[in-house]
Amino acid sequence: MIDKIKAYIYEVERFTTDNTEDLEQFRIQYLGKKGILNTFFAEFKNVPNEQKKEFGKTINELKVSAQSKVEQLKSEIASKIEDKGLYGDLSRPGEPLEIGARHPISLVKNRITTIFSNIGFNVSEGPEIEDDWHNFSALNLPEYHPARDMQDTFFIQTDPKDILLRTHTSSVQVRYMENNEPPIRTISPGRVFRNEDISARSHCIFHQVEGLYIDKNVSFKDLKQTLIYFTQELFGKSKIRLRPSYFPFTEPSAEVDIYWGLETETDYRITKGTGWLEIMGCGMVDPNVLKNCDIDPKEYSGFAFGMGIERIAMLLYQIGDIRMFYENDVRFLKQFKSSL
Ligand code: PHE
Q1: In this predicted model, what pLDDT tens digit does every residue of 102-136 receive, in sequence order?
Q2: Domain that holds residue 227
Q3: Do residues 186 and 70 share a domain?
Q4: Per the database record, which ranges form the Aminoacyl-transfer RNA synthetases class-II family profile domain (predicted)?
């Protein structure tokens, strides 16, 4: 009989629950009127005298441990209920935090700057509100130069026409040359503004990355090799062609086309059936520009290039309308979530 009581004590010690009904069940089973304890107490008179002492002691142990178990679980359950009131169920699984997505323009800008920083270019930035000198004159575009019309400008100050929203980040390159000695290797990403009609293909605000390399004995072949490296890294394609072009600040100047291929219907559409796509402008920095920035063109030469980030992003992500970048439609932005 004593062993039986000891077995019950063991069971009581192991018992646990986190709900009130089970605990009440347990209480009735042990401590209730017709419970285990009372059954044993009723047995007491039938126990032989010499065992009475030990029997009494053991049964008391069972009573104490059942009572304290009930108290302990009661307060545990009560404190859990209290927590629930304050914080909800603390044991529930966590809700994953929604992680935002980088804007595709930032993604592409970061990729481009990383590619160039891997070959020693640093990143330079400058103001969006510029003066005539840094946006035009220093870049070999004196007043009344017809090429100023190539970039329809938003003027902030019109009399005289001096303060404006920069039309390209070449203005940053001018500032960089004014403040740094060659060798210069710098990438200037940033937002630019042009007074153009908004359509699927063009916008009055867009982003550029321009690059500048100035050192002794820099030649056109260095430019070409840099472009091949860049297109290979960004697009995984390095078949390019350079078409003669004109920019006032470079001489000679070229437009860079990349061979995109004609494998899919989209390839046909975006390359207008030619397989070739224009991706940027470039050239050898005009000696006049170097002079304007106090760099001796007899000692130094360099190359520059510039591209529109939107255009590149549209190619990489197959986006058909430039306006998508500025509408902040979360359904559009969410699609870039997994990218870095
Ligand atoms: N600044 C030119 C533009 O905005 C791009 C360019 C940069 C071309 C450097 C040649 C060299 O169109």
Answers
A1: 999 999 999 999 999 999 999 999 999 999 999 99
A2: 104-336
A3: no
A4: 108-335
| Mean pLDDT, all residues of the chain | 91
- Amino acid identity for residue 316 in this structure: L
Nearest Cα residue to 71 out of 37, 41, 11, 31: 31
The predicted pLDDT at position 124 comes to 97
Predicted local distance difference test score (pLDDT) of residue 339: 57
| Residue 95 placed within a domain | no
Q: Which residues are annotated as a binding site for Mg(2+)?
A: 251
Span 255-308, pLDDT tens digits: 999 999 999 888 888 888 999 999 999 999 999 999 999 999 999 999 999 999
Are 220 and 73 found together in one domain? no
Distance 223 CA to ligand 1 centre (A): 14
Output the CA 286–ligand 1 centroid distance in Å: 12
Helices 309-317, 104-117: inter-axial angle, 10-degree rounding: 100
For residue 281, report the distance from its CA to the centre of ligand 1, in Å: 5
If asked whether residues 144 and 235 sit together in one domain, one would say yes
* Ligand 1 centroid distance, CA of 323 (Å): 22
How far apart CA 125 and CA 192 sit, in angstroms, is 12
What is the count of structural domains for the chain?
2
Q: Counting atoms of ligand 1 from 1, which one is nearest the CA of 307?
A: 5
Answer whether 305's CB lies under 8 Å from 225's CB: no
Give the global pTM. Answer: 0.72
| Residues 274, 317 within the same domain | yes
Q: Which atom of ligand 1 is nearest to the CA of 211?
A: 9
Q: Which residue's C-alpha comes closest to atom 5 of ligand 1?
A: 306
Please identify, by atom number, the ligand 1 atom nearest to the C-alpha of residue 150: 12
Own/partner pairs, 142-150, CB within 8 angstroms, 24+ separation: 145/248, 147/246, 147/247, 147/248
* Pair (62, 127) in one structural domain: no
